[in-house]
Amino acid sequence: MLIKFRRDSIVSMYLLGWALAIVGAALLLWSIAATVRSNSTTRIPYWTRPEVIPRGSLITRSLGVGLIIFGVVITISPGGYWISALVVLLFLPGLIMIPLHNRRVARSYPQ
Question: What is the average per-residue pLDDT within 77-102?
Fold first, then answer.
């Protein structure tokens, strides 16, 4: 049985998915920026906890990742599977911030 959607509902779902993904990316970016600011003189490891974890950053990061994934899942139906590249695009700024921070710390505070 094929479910038929009205055109308006598909557009609404598409826009809601984009909005959720963008809000999630903003939350994720804020969380990583807060972690970078709190660890201004130490490196941030990739697979373990940093020395200082700012208050609220873990919940904000988790909420951001969840909203990105949920937004992309909502958007896949009307937008096609190529929209999954949106996940990579939205995670990219946060993934770039950590190595840039670690490089700056290595230059400023040599071991």
Answer: 82
Amino acid code (one letter) for 58: L
Distance from C-alpha of 35 to C-alpha of 37, rounded to nearest angstrom: 5
- Poorest-pLDDT segment among 76-85, 88-97, 98-107: 76-85
Structure tokens at 102: 């670690």
Residue 76 has a pLDDT of: 79
- Match 């770039």 to its residue by tokens: 96
For residue 86, give every residue at least 6 positions away whose Cβ sits within 8 Å of its Cβ, in sequence order, or none.
Answer: 21, 71, 72, 75
- Is residue 72 within 8 A of residue 21, CB to CB? The reply is yes
d(CA 4, CA 52): 51
Contact 16, 77 (CB under 8 A): no
In the block, tokens 């970016």 appear at 29
What residue type is assigned to position 52 of the chain?
V
Give one DSSP letter per residue of 32-79, joined into a string. HHHHHHHTTTS---SSS--S---TTHHHHHHHHHHHHHHHHHHHHHHH
